[in-house]
Amino acid sequence: MELMWRTSHVSGGNAHYVEALYEQYLVDPNAVPDEWRNYFDQLPRPEGSSSHDVPLSPIRDQFYQLGKSRRRAQTASAADSGENKKQVKVLQLINAYRFRGHQKADIDPLDLRSPVPVPDLDLSFHQLTNADLDTEFQTGSFFLGKDKAPLKEIVQALDETYCRSIGCEIMHIVDTEEKRWLQQRFESVRSKPKFSPEVRKHVLERLSAAEGLENYLASKYPGTKRFGLEGGETFVPMMDEIIQRAGGYGTKEVVIGMAHRGRLNLLVNILGKSPSELIEEFDGKKVIERGSGDVKYHQGFSSNVMTPGGEVHLALAFNPSHLEIVAPVVEGSVRARQDRRDDPAGDKVLPINVHGDAAFAGQGVVMETFQMSQTRAYKTGGTVHIVINNQVGFTTSHPDDTRSTEYCTDIAKMVQAPIFHVNGDDPDAVLHATQVAIDYRQQFKRDVVIDLVCYRRRGHNEADEPSGTQPMMYSKIKNHPSARALYAKRLVEEGVLSEDDAKAMGETYRDDLMAGNHVANALVKQPNTELFVDWGPYLGHEWTGDADTTFDMKRMQQLAAKMCEVPDGVQVQRQVAKIYEDRRKMQAGGMGLNWGFAETLAYATLLDQGHPVRITGQDSGRGTFSHRHAVVHNQKDGSTYVPLENIKEGQPRFTIHDSYLSEEAVLAFEYGYATTMPNALIVWEAQFGDFFNGAQVVVDQFISSGETKWGRLCGLTMLLPHGYEGQGPEHSSARLERFLQLCAEHNMQVCVPTTPAQIFHLLRRQVIRPLRKPLVVMSPKSLLRHKEATSTLEELAHGKFQMVLPDQGKLDAEKVKRVVLCAGKVYYDLAAYRTENERDDTAILRLEQLYPFPKEELFEALKDYTNLEQVVWCQEEPLNQGAWYQSQHHMRVVADMLDNGLGRELKFAGRPASAAPAAGYMSVHVEQQRQLVDDAFNA
């Protein structure tokens, strides 16, 4: 924006001319040419403290003073109006239109909306009559272009502004500056700016493209599911305008999330996917060589287009059929791109989320995503939300059954987002609402919603017959002209173009389509690859559990000292001070290393090696069990200090935030972030492991299957506290069995580390190794401070992650008759029992990685026990949970590799099958724990 002010057309000898134009624009924006109106619309705020403000140049200062003078005049007029009772009523009428005009607006193309009585908009409600229509009144804050006007002119202007093709909901916004800005943008042009013939022809061309693709696919593949855009074709010129206008602001990347409807149209007509490629997919071509693949209307895509501000990279996110879950994934991807560009304000990367009406109102993740929009950990500088409003949701639904609110968009009011309801059959209104929406987002860095009220010409999909359940709506749709036909007729009648010109647009598009040519405007055929995320180093790697995670001892001790430093003046809370004092002793070799020290040191070493680290979760700064304390809170003033942000000069970004109380949106966000930042360690920590229940859809649809469906790599790490401590059914189990059930094709890693050295190397392996697979960690609770669960600096510096930990006792291998296999905390109970009962005939092996199952490593750990008679799997979880059902076949295979074929004799020791994850009574828990340990040795 600063560059705009340096250009010659607004400086030097042109200054007086531009000032005159601007003064004219303030009076009547439609009186200045399109390009100047757009230019003035996008001027930065002269007041406020947004990060992109620049010092006022002389011409900007003059513009500012003009605006101030006008506001003073309006304020004075409003003050004078208090002298006249009817004047007060007129001002109340103006306010009523601003509040409730949208309820009277003509926003439904099918005219199916039941009229809502709006008495506030009647003259009589405000004790005014027709006799007052010729009386002049002060206009107050209403942007009419003059201070006084006859009442009939005021009412006509209000009706044109708030009750035609755009219904504005902006009065729920608390911030006065935002509200006044929005009022000015709509009132100054009566919600209908005069677009140039060239602009309107371009809109018709994009409508022709939208309709042309749907007609072509309908004729070539009748009855085939494609979730077409018929009835909502104005979505295509809307998206085109958002991208082009955002590019004019300097945006470099746009990330788009949307459900099924219109996706193929967006891919071809906006992102520039080759029509011939789409046709090949309809004919059954595989998109990815390995994996299951996915249907056409779930696929993502990326491309570059040219805009007035330069090249812009577009990315359409992959999306499953859980309609709205993609929204927070998009936000995570955007935040990663902004972090990579050092763009905290969100000037360079724009998120767009496209929704269906029923899903927008009905699915809770939408509300969760709105709630994250202004939080420190998840904000992205505002999102443009577009609702393609079919007015019927899925085919059989009725608005009375899909929501309890008047509009499907009412949930957006929770974050005071402005909402523009716009008639999808009025492309000029759609264009204006779109321009205001993107300008608002760029100006205020907050979410905005466009409710594109349209219809669906076919059913929920092309194989559906909608008239069976929606006879009245579809009798209207059957005879309703398309938006393209209506707009073409209007432009011909207004002399903008001829009928032949309008017809030629459709024919030209169809010819290009049939020839297989690209049909997206401004597509860059040789894109700037600097705008892409480089996944090259992480592609094509086969599974391996090995990685060199060693680290220089001297440097590691230096980093350990740095992560324990707290500046003078930061008063540390007493228990936290003790933790840091113990860590200093650990760094010096005077104490065994505990979990919190090793985990934090893993982050420090990764930062030192150039890898960003991001950790979020409801207690991630402190750790749910107070083991981490990566964020130190000053007891004097509440300020915070993060030692890991101060490891060395020029270090990568270290981000740690306590999240708001969400799992679904937050985990989806972190998934999106991890799929866009391959060189970083991205960690989501659940408060308790079972809390991921609230985000099961993210695990099922993205984390476990994103690679096999879409070829989408992801290195996200999930820390899920797991362990039976007698806390009852809710906070014992991270549902290990669910993750193992989802494991196949080396899609993810499920690990249960039991020592500080193991978590140190496991976290480092996740980044150092070029393989990018999700990592699920059953992290501990009581082991965080268990006196036996310690490691040494040497194990950190020179070791590696061991998928199988051999027996730690000094046993004579020939005397061992039984091997107990286990994972997690139960190992320490087993080891204590063995010591107490002097059982030197039983070895205990720990499976630290349950998937991919370490068959070779387990065999190596077992083969020396030549007199083995029995192998037992011991777990704390009930029989029907934990690792038993999903992993026993792997264990049997390994046991059968031994000379005496012990696989058939593999035994189970654990809790009996249970509907609940754990016992709720401590006495039952203790007895069950005692019994399962005893069974492991004696059953």
Describe the secondary structure blueprint for this structure.
Elements: H1 2-6, H2 15-27, H3 34-41, H4 58-80, H5 85-100, E1 136-138, E2 148-150, H6 151-162, E3 166-169, H7 176-187, H8 197-220, H9 235-248, E4 253-258, H10 263-269, H11 275-282, E5 301-307, E6 310-316, H12 326-340, E7 349-356, H13 357-362, H14 364-371, E8 384-389, H15 399-402, E9 419-423, H16 427-444, E10 448-453, H17 471-478, H18 483-493, H19 499-514, H20 553-562, H21 574-587, H22 595-608, E11 613-617, E12 632-633, E13 640-641, E14 654-658, H23 664-674, E15 681-685, H24 696-703, H25 706-710, E16 717-721, H26 736-742, E17 749-751, H27 756-768, E18 775-779, H28 793-798, E19 804-805, E20 818-822, H29 826-837, E21 842-847, E22 849-851, H30 855-862, E23 870-878, H31 884-896, E24 907-911, H32 922-938
Parallel strand pairs: 4-6, 4-7, 7-8, 8-10, 9-10, 11-14, 11-15, 15-16, 16-18, 17-18, 20-21, 20-23, 23-24
Antiparallel strand pairs: 1-2, 3-9, 5-6, 12-13, 17-22, 19-21
Helix pairs in contact: 2-4, 5-6, 8-9, 8-18, 8-19, 9-16, 12-23, 22-27, 23-24, 29-32, 30-31
Short description:
With 939 residues, this protein is α/β, with parallel strands linked by helices. The chain contains 32 helices and 24 strands.
